[in-house]
Specification:
The complex is a heterodimer of chains A (415) and B (480). Chain A has 415 residues and is of the alpha+beta class. Chain A folds into 2 domains: 311 residues, BirA Bifunctional Protein, domain 2 (2-Layer Sandwich), CATH 3.30.930.10; 85 residues, 3-Layer(aba) Sandwich (Rossmann fold). Chain A has 16 helices and 17 strands. In chain A, the strands form 3 sheets. In chain A, strands 1-5-6-12-11-10-7-9-8 form a 9-stranded mixed sheet, sandwiched between helices. In chain A, strands 14-13-15-16-17 form a 5-stranded mixed sheet, covered by helices on one side. In chain A, strands 2-4-3 form a 3-stranded antiparallel sheet. In chain A, α1 packs antiparallel against α5. By secondary structure, chain B is an alpha/beta fold. Chain B has 4 domains: 118 residues, 3-Layer(aba) Sandwich (D-Maltodextrin-Binding Protein, domain 2); 103 residues, 3-Layer(aba) Sandwich (D-Maltodextrin-Binding Protein, domain 2); 127 residues, Periplasmic binding protein-like II (D-Maltodextrin-Binding Protein, domain 2), CATH 3.40.190; 97 residues, D-Maltodextrin-Binding Protein, domain 2. In chain B, 28% of the residues lie in helices and 28% in strands. Chain B is built from 15 helices and 24 strands. Chain B is globular and about 75 Å long. Classes of the chains: A alpha+beta (415), B alpha/beta (480). At the A-B interface, α7 of A face α4, β9 and α7 of B.
């Protein structure tokens, strides 16, 4: 019986890993250049970290991998992290909250059950968190969007659409409509779970349905649109107006930076810990990242009152967009050992090490076809027990040259 | 051409009489299934291709989902318990059968103490439904105690919220306050999805025309409506039930002792009598009998659940079987539960069992047999899932699958399992079913267990010393 791969798992082959590492290094280098520091949280956390304060919707929590640990007789479960932001906020509370502002980033896997078999159950993401920002933010979100767009541009992803929504605006709107606990919670969950079409069928008061549908249909392209909205909705409740102005402030800054975006209130899909701006990055119709402001998360997890915002780029999805010429690897040397005599074997491995130290890929020829499709061997080196001990074939130039020493060999390779 | 067999799983226990009556009404003419009958296999005189087996109701959704049976009848509550944990499971609800109505209700103690510790403790025979409820209710921090039964005994000391099954017009047990119905249940016909999509079941299903009409409007799953109602009820829990200041089980020096119910109850009561430990009400089925010894309080719950309750400090000590202690320690190797005293009664052997004609005499030969038949996973059925898992690992019986069972495990061989890890007193029942023991894992008797931290606490320690001395006296009496 062949033992098959776990249903929700994915093997990453050499070409996949080349893409993965390329994204990882672009992400890492960009974050470091913006002053962010790398951290990593454990794969396993207590489940109650994620259930605390209603930070994830029940729909998301139903897909969390949780289990009783070996010392779990208390009945409290542990979980494979379904999300990166909540553990990062926990890390900040445990270690950094007294220092004020922290710029953190991480490259991690997250886990979530998917029964369709179309999505991997283990996903990789690069996350960025700006924790402990003074005031209500604005500049922070702009920094995050700029950083994310910089990474995506570096990866040559092609056209990326930025969609903006505002969690505070949606919540204030629902409050203003007087939706009761059950309705607002249920509607918001459906919205956050991306089930906007289901709202029409939601069992709530018709006037709530109608008003919410109007809000969800709002779309625009400049901050002026939000100004128009403010003017047309007079009079509005203070909470709604404050959130709208917060939205306008960020939109105005993005306009100043000539960064294109779409205002799409219904795009507010994500985690319900968001309190302010929510932004999404799309390549075509595929969401490749997203983030937003979450000022209440740290206090809800037991930390001090600290504002925060962040985003994640989905490495597993980005891998489909990294073009092969960006993935490519350098030329290599295939080292063929002519015999298994100790002197030849020693000579072969010594030559291989020196070539590697010189910065080239050197691979011993073990016979058979190489599985590697991404690497080409420009040179073939035959190591022999006769003079000259090295014969180097340059396949690009179609030349065969003998070398008496490794030093001479390296000179030939360097050209 | 003879048609292929249609396999049907039917329940024993609460739904057995109703199911037998329905089968008679539909004219299935089942030979071997009926109220009070204790046979495991049955066939239909009317439909020769219809055959089946009798299971504990809770086992039926698993057996149908894995495809061992095409059709099954069980309570909707057990189907939901399976389905909320395994949403992609191959189970199809065919129809409500209109009998065996019950409801799973959420209840708290009427006497206070809800959520004192900041962690809401949910105890239930329906742990998966309980977890779903906790998520839907957005409880910030919760723990789930999966139980074998007796949930009503837990609040307020040992649980904040319990899910219990009761009749539709039944009131909650004394001392409990019902918050509302989590799900309504009745007997239902379920099918394996693959069988449902491919097998011709028309002749059997056609007879359902004569079945009683199902009730209308009953919720068939834990859903938004029930969650909303319960969230409202939770928010309205009377102040009295929320009052704080409850002490931990043994913080006031009281020794909380857990005693077993079920099969272990009569020999335990007899032994305690012999030891001179007076407990009023234990033999008459009280969940909270009165202990004569000052400073000792006790509760009666399932022996299977006692080690976990002792580990959590809900009881400083308890009497249970060594088999259940070992099962607990296989799951939680660093548990603070320790054995204090072996009590000698309730002796059983925990054994590995195969069908009688299998040419295997031990685990080494079982490995050979597995090798010869290819890499089909060995199916191990057991009530002791953690012991079974550990046994398979230690004996390199890979690949294997452990099938949890809730009783009548001997019925699983040979069709639905290859190996059982089962307890036996004399081996007679196993022999009657043409099964054979190939290994004895260990021998088990009743024992006194304690929580390592609690039993060293002053006050508790004094009470425990007196109790242990009495139990030793009982052992001496037994020896004479």
């Amino acid at each position: 019986m062949k033992i098959s791969r776990y249903k929700g798992g994915k093997d990453l082959l050499a070409a996949d890993m080349a893409a993965f590492r390329l994204i990882e290094s672009a992400f890492r280098e960009s974050c470091l250049s913006w002053g962010y520091e790398e951290v990593r949280t454990p794969t396993i956390e207590y489940l109650h970290l994620f259930t605390s304060a209603g930070t994830l919707t029940p729909g998301m929590l139903r897909r969390v991998y949780s289990f009783l640990d070996w010392d779990g007789w208390s009945g409290e479960r542990v979980a494979l992290r379904p999300d990166g932001t909540i553990p990062a906020a926990r890390l900040y509370i445990d270690n950094l909250q007294d220092q004020g502002l922290a710029r953190l980033f991480y490259l991690i896997n997250t886990f979530g059950y998917d029964e369709t078999g179309r999505e991997a159950r283990e996903r990789w993401q690069g996350g960025v968190e700006l924790l402990g920002t003074p005031g209500k933010g604005g500049l922070g979100e702009v920094e995050l969007i700029q950083l994310a767009m910089g990474i995506l541009s570096r990866l040559k992803i092609g056209k990326v659409t930025v969609k903006l929504s505002h969690a505070g605006l949606i919540k204030a709107y629902l409050d203003e409509l007087g939706a009761n606990w059950g309705e607002s919670s249920h509607l918001l969950e459906e919205l956050l779970d991306g089930e906007a079409p289901a709202l029409a069928a939601a069992a709530c008061q018709p006037e709530v349905q109608k008003a919410l549908s109007q809000l969800l249909r709002l779309k625009g392209k400049k901050h002026g649109f939000l100004k128009n909205l403010e003017a047309s909705l007079q009079p509005v409740a203070p909470a709604f107006r404050d959130n709208l102005r917060d939205f306008m402030r960020v939109a105005e800054m993005l306009d100043a930076l000539k960064l294109d975006y779409e205002i799409d209130i219904a795009s507010g899909r994500g985690f319900e810990y968001y309190t302010g701006i929510i932004f999404q990055f799309l390549a075509g119709d595929v969401k490749i990242g997203g983030g937003g402001r979450y000022d209440e998360l740290i206090p809800l997890l037991g930390g001090k009152k600290r504002s925060a915002a962040g985003f994640a780029l989905y490495i597993s999805r980005l891998m489909d967009y990294v073009s092969p010429d960006v993935i490519g690897t350098g030329p290599g040397v295939l080292v063929q050992v002519a015999s298994e005599k100790p002197v030849v074997v020693r000579r072969g491995f010594q030559a291989q090490r020196r070539i590697q130290e010189a910065g080239y890929v050197a691979e011993i020829d073990l016979g058979g076809r190489s599985h590697s499709r991404s690497r080409t061997h420009r040179w073939k080196l035959l190591v022999r027990d006769q003079s000259p001990p090295f014969l180097l074939t340059d396949q690009d130039r179609d030349t065969l040259t003998g070398a008496a020493s490794v030093a001479e060999l390296l000179r030939l390779i360097r050209g | 051409m003879a048609r292929s067999l249609l396999r049907l799983a039917l329940p024993k226990g609460r739904l057995q009489a109703g199911t037998a009556a329905l089968a008679a009404l539909l004219g299935w003419d089942l030979d071997g299934y009926g109220d009070g009958l204790r046979r495991y296999r049955f066939s239909s005189n009317r439909f020769p291709y219809l055959q089946g087996k009798v299971f504990h109701e809770k086992d039926i959704p698993v057996q149908v989902a894995v495809g061992n049976y095409d059709l099954g009848i069980c309570g909707l509550d057990w189907m939901e318990e399976h389905r909320v944990r395994y949403p992609a499971s191959a189970l199809v609800k065919v129809r409500d059968l209109g009998y065996g109505q019950s409801q799973v209700v959420a209840a708290v103690s009427a006497s206070g103490g809800f959520g004192d510790s900041g962690v809401v403790r949910l105890a239930s025979e329906y742990p998966n439904v309980a977890e779903r409820l906790a998520l839907e209710l957005r409880l910030r921090r919760f723990s789930i105690f999966p139980l074998w039964g007796g949930a009503e005994a837990y609040p307020p000391e040992n649980a904040d919220l319990v899910l219990i099954s009761q009749g539709t017009s039944e009131r909650p047990p004394e001392g409990l306050l019902s918050l509302g119905t989590v799900l309504s249940s009745s007997a239902c016909l379920i099918a394996n999805r693959d069988s449902w999509e491919a097998e011709d079941m028309g002749e059997i299903l056609g007879t359902l025309e004569r079945a009683p009409t199902p009730r209308d409007g009953s919720p068939d799953a834990i859903g938004t409506e029930s969650t909303r109602r319960l969230a409202g009820a939770l928010a309205r829990i009377p102040a009295a039930a929320r009052k704080t200041g409850r002490k931990g089980p043994d913080e006031d020096g009281t020794l909380w002792l857990g005693l077993p119910d079920g099969h272990q109850q009569p020999p335990t009561a007899q032994f305690l009598d012999k030891a001179g430990v007076g407990i009023e009400g234990y033999s008459t089925g009280s969940r909270r009998p009165k202990v004569a010894q000052a400073g000792v309080a006790c509760k009666v719950i399932r022996p299977q659940d006692l080690p976990l309750q002792v580990a959590n400090g809900n009881f400083a000590a308890a009497i249970t079987g060594q088999d259940w202690l070992r099962e607990h320690r296989c799951q939680f190797p660093t548990s603070p539960v320790e054995e204090i005293l072996t009590l000698g009664f309730g002796l059983v052997r925990v054994v590995a069992v195969v069908k009688g004609d299998l040419p295997v005499a031990g685990p080494a030969e079982l490995r050979q047999w597995m090798k010869a038949r290819g890499k089909t996973p060995l199916r191990i059925a057991s009530e002791y899932v953690n012991i079974a898992d550990s046994y398979a690992r230690e004996n390199h019986l890979s690949p294997y699958r452990v099938i949890p069972t809730w009783g009548a495990t001997e019925a699983f061989l040979p069709e639905d399992a290859d190996l059982l890890i089962e307890n036996t007193q004399t081996g007679k029942t196993l022999a009657e079913h043409k099964l054979k023991i190939i290994d004895t894992l260990f021998e088990s008797s009743a024992c006194l267990i304690g929580n390592a931290g609690a039993v060293r606490r002053e006050g508790v320690q004094r009470g425990l010393s007196t109790l242990v001395e009495a139990l030793r006296r009982g052992l001496r009496e037994e020896a004479q």
